[in-house]
């Protein structure tokens, strides 16, 4: 034990005390126990290991996230590839060749590793995804000040994986977004993984010391961690309320039209992604064809054709061809519906001056 301790002092220990502002989000557990007995009454912080040298977004985020748990709050970070040192640590991320959550070993580089998040997600995990898989619910529950079993914790656990973590796992494991051999048409180097990569020491930098490298890693943890927390907060204050509105509007769609294919969005919110997710989750059939809502100035009403998928420009049932590209009186004559304002050339959206007019357009379009 003594030998280990001395070795350890030769290594650089990141205390990450500059994190206090971010860490305030994660209450430290008074029950956290010392990592090993030192014979002294003050509890020793736990020790997390990750590799030194070039760092990536996955372990920067993984280290940040694991320190938000009760078990590892305030722990020190030791960056090394020395397996004798790694063996003595309380958790090891992205190095060591072992995935064993019961001993907090979270490497993903070893042959045969194939862990995925589950819940329908099949992207191979990185050290970030591994930490999130095992501790994500605890972290989110603390941020929301809810029990881990609360349905909103489970909901956010999946939503934050989908919108934030999965891309980091995929990028780290070299999985591209599309099945294609085509070279990309342009470079996109502003995503989080790229920005973390840019924080590594420049080869031209005369100071390539471990101290400088560790300071850069600390910045990387801060960058990835703050965006992770922002993602959770966005989901709490914006995504969840929008989801509730869409659930409520979907459930009363039968009152709008007996077809069940027209939804009135009675309070504007970002509805598109929720609509796709909820239709699938609630097994809604037939799928919604049109959504009616008041325009942002509250002056007229819009009727929007729902797309075939979240990323598609194609509509499930575009507004009728003869209406497209027409405006005002000409459109009203063509549709036989007074007060029409416009229908877009592609037929994905149209407008009427009143709610009744927009509903009439949707109903007529359904029968077209
Ligand atoms: C990692 O740290 C060890 C000392 O623990 C050092 O010998 C090695 O050069 C470092 N590796 C890199 C890539 O910086
Ligand atoms: C670049 O990548 C980021 C992250 O993957 C993405 O959010 C952004 O939309 C991309 N930008 C473009 C222009 O594709
Ligand atoms: C469309 O809006 C106009 C203007 O308010 C209105 O006169 C017309 O009745 C509306 N159409 C229908 C079918 O209600």
From TrEMBL:
Annotated keywords: Signal
Gene Ontology CC entries for this record: cytoplasm; nucleus
Signal peptide start-end: 1-24
InterPro entries: MYG1_exonuclease (IPR003226)
Region (Disordered): 29-49
Protein family membership: Belongs to the MYG1 family.
Protein name per the record: MYG1 protein-like
UniProt organism field: Dioscorea cayennensis subsp. rotundata (White Guinea yam)
Encoding gene, per UniProt annotation: LOC120279252
């Amino acid at each position: 034990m003594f030998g280990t301790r001395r070795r350890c002092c030769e290594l650089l220990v990141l205390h990450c005390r500059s994190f206090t502002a971010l860490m305030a989000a994660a209450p430290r557990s008074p029950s956290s126990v010392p990592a090993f007995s030192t014979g002294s009454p003050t509890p020793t912080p736990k020790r997390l290991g990750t590799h030194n040298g070039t760092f990536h977004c996955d372990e920067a985020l993984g280290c940040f996230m694991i320190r938000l748990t009760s078990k590892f709050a305030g722990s020190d970070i030791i960056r090394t590839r020395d397996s004798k040192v790694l063996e003595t640590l309380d958790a090891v991320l992205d190095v060591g060749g072992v995935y064993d959550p019961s001993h907090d070993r979270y490497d993903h580089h070893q042959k045969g590793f194939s862990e995925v998040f589950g819940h329908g997600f099949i992207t191979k995990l990185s050290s970030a995804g591994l930490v999130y898989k095992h501790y994500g619910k605890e972290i989110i529950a603390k941020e929301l000040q809810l029990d881990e079993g609360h349905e909103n914790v489970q909901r956010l656990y999946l939503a934050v994986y989908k919108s934030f973590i999965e891309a980091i796992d995929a990028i780290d494991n070299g999985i591209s977004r599309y099945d294609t051999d085509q070279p990309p048409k342009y470079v996109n180097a502003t995503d989080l993984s790229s920005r973390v990569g840019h924080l590594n020491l420049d080869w031209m930098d005369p100071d390539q010391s471990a101290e400088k490298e560790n300071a850069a890693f600390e910045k990387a943890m801060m960058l990835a961690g703050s965006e992770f927390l922002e993602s959770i907060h966005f989901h709490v204050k914006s995504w969840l309320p929008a989801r509730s509105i869409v659930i409520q509007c979907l459930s009363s769609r039968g009152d709008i039209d007996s077809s069940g294919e027209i939804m009135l969005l009675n309070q504007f919110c970002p509805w598109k992604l929720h609509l796709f997710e909820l239709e699938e989750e609630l097994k809604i059939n037939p799928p919604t064809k049109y959504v009616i809502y008041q325009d942002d100035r509250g002056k007229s009403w819009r009727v929007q054709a729902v797309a075939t998928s979240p990323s598609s420009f194609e509509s499930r049932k575009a507004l009728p061809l003869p209406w497209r590209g027409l405006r005002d009186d000409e459109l009203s004559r063509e549709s036989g519906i007074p007060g029409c304002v416009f229908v877009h050339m592609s037929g994905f959206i149209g407008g009427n001056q009143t709610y009744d007019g927009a509903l009439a357009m949707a109903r007529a379009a359904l029968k077209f």
